[in-house]
Design brief:
Elements lengths: L1 H12 L10 H13 L9 H5 L6 E7 L8 E8 L2 E8 L6 E8 L31 E3 L4 E7 L2 E8 L4
Antiparallel strand pairs: 1-2, 2-3, 3-4, 4-7, 5-6, 6-7
Length: 162
């Protein structure tokens, strides 16, 4: 239901030119979209992340935070054209909290159809760009596009891992 509402919101705003600051509701809706923009599969555990494709490398370092319950690791999963960074609980079922996704291949499109190789002119977001021309942020989540020769060369999702 939420996905349908967000899809409608973004379809409605696809041609909009934002002239004023987005409202709190619009920023929250954008955060929700960014968090679900890469929906190839369930990415809630280490094993579900590993299962989305041929894993090329996996590396991790301890995550130290005073508020974290149990032991966690910052884990980087690299696939062909895709890197996922997550906070992963050491104990089973190894719950994963995504903190970043970097897409370098058209094989990993976003839910709105944007992908590496698509013309930058196709980028339409319901919030204005942030400090960088191709970086769009809600309250906590951001999507940033790399550009080369007028085409998207990289997509970076920055996610708040809570």
């Amino acid at each position: 239901m939420v996905r349908a509402a967000l899809t409608f919101l973004f379809a409605l705003c696809a041609g909009c030119a934002t002239t004023s600051e987005p409202s709190l509701h619009e920023l929250e809706a954008f955060d929700s979209w960014v968090h679900s923009a890469f929906s190839k599969a369930d990415l809630s555990t280490a094993s579900s992340i590993r299962a989305i494709g041929k894993l090329l490398t996996e590396s991790s370092v301890p995550y130290e935070a005073g508020h974290a319950v149990g032991k966690w690791r910052v884990t980087t999963y690299e696939f062909d054209g895709l890197t996922i960074v997550a906070l992963v609980q050491e104990a089973q079922p190894q719950r994963a909290l995504l903190s970043g996704i970097i897409i370098l291949s058209s094989a990993w499109p976003l839910t709105n159809g944007l992908a590496v190789g698509v013309p930058v002119s196709k980028i339409k977001m319901p919030v204005p760009p942030s400090d960088k021309p191709l970086r769009y942020c809600g309250l906590n989540e951001c999507v940033e596009f790399g550009e080369e020769n007028g085409q998207i060369s990289k997509i970076m999702l920055s996610l708040y891992a809570e």
